[in-house]
Amino acid sequence: MKRRQGKWVAETSAGENAQRELPLFAKDYFALGRKAARKQVPTERLHQFRLATKHFRYLLELFRPAYGPRLDSYIDQLRKVQTLLGDLQDFAVTRDMVETGPEMGTADARRAIEFLTKREEKKRGEFREYWKSEMDAEGREAAWKNYLGKHAVKKAPGRLKKAEGQAAKVGS
Questions:
Q1: How far is CA 140 from the centre of its chain?
Q2: Rounded to whole angstroms, how far apart are CA atoms 127 and 90?
Q3: Which residues are CB-neighbours of 158 under 8 A, at least 6 positions away?
Q4: H-only helix segments in 101-157
Q5: Measured on CA atoms in the order 117, 123, 129, 132, is the torsion positive or negative?
Q6: C-alpha of 169 from chain center
Q7: Are 71 and 26 in contact (CB under 8 A)?
Q8: Separation between Cα atoms, residue 83 and residue 108, nearest integer Å
Q9: Burial, 26: exposed, middle or buried (Cβ in 10 Å; 0-12, 13-18, 19+)?
Q10: For 5-60, how does the pLDDT look when each residue is reduced to its tens digit (9 = 90+)?
Q11: CA dist., res. 15 & res. 157, Å (int)
Q12: Radius of gyration of the chain (CA)
């Protein structure tokens, strides 16, 4: 998954840069999420989407001073996606370890693999349900893009000075 590179404009504030760029990041993120929420997506692809979720969450956290505490509800939704996919990944990795470990082929290993596979599939279903009902419900992507595109502080009060300095480093 190719990550978007934002275009930081040094002559404008962190808020103005955020309002211009973050809706584009959200658009890309939702497109990736729709692909990840399809049936029969390989676990490695879901892991890649988990990493994309983490990167998007970190980006939003960087700009939290520009948006204020209301942004936390958006960040919490990303955390939930990350947790669901992290749990799924843990089950998949453990299953792989049992399948290739010294006990492979034993009755205990087969039971463990069956258990882990069921748990992995359960988490996969929970992710898909959460994505479709919460993240990708009608109007959700538009709400994200609208919020990110309109609700950042445009001028840099003291709380934004630090964010502007950090964001300029990321953008260069």
A1: 15
A2: 14
A3: none
A4: 107-130, 140-150
A5: negative
A6: 22
A7: no
A8: 28
A9: buried
A10: 778 888 888 889 999 999 999 999 999 999 999 999 999 999 999 999 999 999 99
A11: 10
A12: 19
The amino acid at residue 144 is W
pTM for the whole thing? 0.84
22 CB-near residues (< 8 Å, 6+ apart): 59, 60, 63, 148, 149, 152
H helical segments located in 38-70: 43-62, 64-67
Q: Which residues, in sequence order, are CB contacts of 59 under 8 Å at separation 6+?
A: 22, 25
Q: Which residue has the tokens 């404009």?
A: 9
Please tell me the distance from the alpha carbon of residue 145 to that of residue 18, in angstroms, as a whole number: 11
User: How many helices (H) and strands (E) would you count in the chain?
Assistant: 7, 0
Determine the residue type at 45: R
Q: Which two tokens stand for residue 62?
A: 């960087």
Query: What pLDDT does 12 receive?
Result: 86
pLDDT band at residue 1 under the 50/70/90 scheme: low
Query: Cα separation of 108 and 106, whole Å?
Result: 5
Output the average pLDDT for the chain. Answer: 89
Where in the chain are the domains? 14-86+121-171
Q: How many other β-carbons are positioned within 10 Å of the β-carbon of residue 104?
A: 12
